[in-house]
């Protein structure tokens, strides 16, 4: 659903598309080939976006003045090159509509690039790095200490612009993120803050989901220590690999248990959702959290039905279709709300 309304300029600014063009791997190659096979009408936009990215050799995320100047110079050169009139004996002149669309794409890239520049300058002023994703978007960010954060759909993180060698590495999360934390020689702590708990680590791989009525932490490798404030005291929980901890701020209830497989909670970072006997009620929540869709289940018994499949994170339409066909359900759109009922 996310990419269906994209133009070339939108594809050019999408991290996952840029990764496919610049550094393709089996995951990106499989996703984009399958997606384009399902959406052949977008072949022209993706082709133009690929050509312009390769032409610009565009790099996002640099903060030095020299990098911004280099990006700006390349944008200007590319813009003027696309504006150059066709010389005699050249190929036939493109249609006026195509020229307008191409110019619009280049101008959009310039505007977005200036926004990136402004955001980075603002970060320098405020002392905070801030990253966020839209619905259906997954983004991987490398932090200044060498750690990586994969940010889930509709999520935000912020952290200090300058992590010096003495201070703790502190990061604030709203939504969902998977962390691969680099262990440093001086054992500097890495702390993730949500609205309700603190997750403290030295070096590990873990997932934090701070959505809805529960905070969920899933640990893949290493150790993490959770601190859960409760009025005048703080409860601490030491997690081991393969465990999940669920905490409800409203009831103050904490559940800690081992998992046979963590993929159900972490596969989204690879842009795949893994469902294994997952009740429809949980999938409805994913539609809301990941895609911003309002979903109403007309028949309550449907919520308990189990669903098993693997689907791309970005494609809500495919998930709806698969859910409908496998569980024999009817999907109806009423006033921007998807109503699920028995056929």
Q: What is the fold's blueprint, element by element?
A:
Layout: H1 8-12, H2 15-22, H3 26-38, H4 43-56, H5 65-83, H6 96-126, E1 128-132, E2 139-142, E3 148-151, E4 156-160, E5 169-180, E6 190-193, E7 198-201, E8 205-211, E9 214-221, E10 224-230, E11 233-239, E12 243-248, E13 253-258, H7 263-266, E14 272-279, H8 280-291, E15 294-297, E16 306-312, H9 316-327, E17 329-334, E18 337-342
Parallel strand pairs: 5-6, 15-18
Antiparallel strand pairs: 1-4, 2-3, 3-5, 4-5, 5-8, 6-7, 7-10, 8-9, 9-12, 10-11, 12-13, 14-16, 17-18
Q: How does the helix and strand content classify structurally?
A: alpha+beta
Provide the succession of SSEs: HHHHHHEEEEEEEEEEEEEHEHEEHEE
Indicate how many domains the architecture comprises. 3
- Uncertain segments are 58-69, 78-92, 122-126
- Distance N to C terminus: 24 Å
Count of individual helical segments: 9
* CATH topology label of the largest domain: Jelly Rolls
Radius of gyration of CA atoms, rounded to a whole number? 23 Å
Shape: globular
- Whole-number mean pLDDT: 80
- CATH architecture descriptor name of the largest domain: Sandwich
Summarize the amount of helix as a percent range.
Answer: 25-40%
Number of strands: 18
Strand content: 25-35%
Q: State the CATH class of the largest domain.
A: Mainly Beta
**Sheet bearing the most strands, described?**
13 strands, mixed
């Amino acid at each position: 659903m996310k990419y269906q309304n994209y133009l070339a300029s939108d594809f050019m600014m999408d991290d996952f598309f840029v990764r496919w063009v610049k550094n393709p791997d089996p995951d990106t190659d499989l996703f984009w080939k399958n997606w384009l096979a399902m959406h052949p009408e977008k072949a022209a936009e993706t082709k133009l976006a690929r050509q312009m990215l390769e032409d610009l050799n565009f790099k996002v995320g640099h903060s030095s003045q020299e990098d911004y100047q280099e990006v700006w110079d390349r944008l200007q050169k590319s813009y003027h090159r696309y504006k150059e009139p066709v010389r005699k004996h050249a190929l036939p002149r493109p249609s006026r509509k195509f020229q307008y669309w191409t110019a619009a794409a280049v101008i959009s890239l310039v505007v977005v690039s200036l926004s990136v520049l402004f955001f980075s300058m603002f970060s320098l002023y405020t002392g905070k790095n801030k990253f966020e994703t839209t619905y259906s978007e997954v983004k991987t960010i490398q932090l200044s200490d060498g750690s990586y954060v994969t940010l889930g759909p509709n999520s935000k993180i912020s952290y200090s612009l300058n992590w010096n060698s003495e201070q703790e590495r502190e990061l604030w999360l709203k939504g969902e993120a998977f962390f691969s934390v680099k262990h440093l020689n001086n054992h500097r702590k890495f702390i993730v803050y949500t609205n309700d708990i603190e997750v403290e680590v030295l070096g590990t791989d873990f997932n934090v989901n701070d959505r809805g009525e529960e905070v969920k932490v899933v640990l893949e490798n290493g150790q993490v220590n959770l601190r859960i404030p409760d009025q005048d005291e703080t409860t601490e929980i030491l997690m081991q690999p393969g465990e999940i901890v669920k905490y409800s701020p409203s009831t103050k209830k904490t559940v800690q248990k081992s998992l046979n497989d963590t993929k159900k909670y972490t596969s989204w970072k690879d842009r795949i959702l893994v469902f294994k006997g997952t009740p429809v009620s949980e999938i409805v929540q994913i539609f809301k959290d990941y895609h911003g869709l309002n979903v109403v289940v007309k028949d309550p018994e449907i919520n308990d039905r189990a669903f098993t499949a693997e689907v791309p994170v970005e494609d809500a339409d495919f998930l709806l279709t698969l859910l409908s066909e496998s569980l024999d359900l009817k999907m109806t759109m009423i006033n921007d709300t998807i109503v699920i009922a028995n056929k």
